[in-house]
Amino acid sequence: MNELQKELLEAASSAEMQLAETRDANALEELRVRFLGRKGLLPALTAKLGKVPVEDKPATGKTLNQVKNTILQLFEQKSSELQAAGGGKTQSLDVSLPGRQRPLGHKHPITRVMDETVAIFRRMGFVVADGPDIEDVWHNFDALNTPPEHPSRTPEDTFYFGLQGDNWLNPETGILRTQTSPVQIRVMKSQKPPVRIICPGRCYRRDTPDATHGMSFHQIEGLYVDKNVSLADLKGVLTHYAKEMFGKQVKVRLRPHYFPFTEPSVECDASCIICAGKGCRVCKGSGWLELAGAGMVNPAVFENVGYDPEEVSGYAFGMGLERTAMIRYAINDLRLLYENDLRFLHQF
Ligand code: DAH
Fold first, then answer.
1. Whose Cα sits closest to atom 14 in ligand 1?
2. For 56-68, what is each residue's pLDDT tens digit?
């Protein structure tokens, strides 16, 4: 073994030892420059090969190549070790820094009222049903016995897709549903009676936003169809709901009203929970709060979905959730619910 070969082997073991002590990417780079850089040890040793006697050249050249490969391999190995241990930045990790905060969120007041309402009706045997927010005119109006001249159908009141001429009267025209009632139609079209469903969801109307109106809001629809269903059943179910939601002392009354899809139709009121029925600002002095629109399913609706009105009867109701949330949490402006202001939302 000649001098150069000895030097080469020493370089290899020196590289191995120093790499074993390298702890970060900067030190590794420094070492790389020292061994492999343009003015580093290995190029210097390579240059010495020219001075080796001709007969020694093949053996020395071989050693040189082996040592080069070994060193390159050692560097590569160290580099991937450091990367695996944290991007080679292990030194910059400050374990005393506080962790990143991920505050736990909570439910929006509307979602809470919706969940609670659903839970109350599920305990009475209702099943949750769902329908699309993007409806068509037939499901939202025609099937629900709403005549073409009904004011709620005009484009001033309802959001239509692809409005052209009077295609807003075309049963297939797309709309944003104005109520959750079309879910009644979808469910009855897809199953035989008996039906006992509630459908929570979002609705849309062309209202100018103010303290009590938004262009989008939430409703919960209820539908019960079976043999011999009566208005007394409806009142019983809504009374139970009101007592569960607002407290045992709450009273419920039905007032005559009109909806195209029910006959007879009623408004259901709960005694005001703020003043216990005495009359206050929230109930506008009447002592009562509107709870839901409701009624006995109109036989015309049964015919539209292929049910026999001689055979079955049913009740339906629809209630707004925003109002319930506002009363429940004493919120005086509906817009607060949608501004996404955390200072407001954190209070619930
Ligand atoms: N869809 C009605 C509305 O948005 C509410 C309603 C009234 C729903 C009576 C019903 C019902 O199911 O029977 O004003």
1. 293
2. 999 999 999 999 9
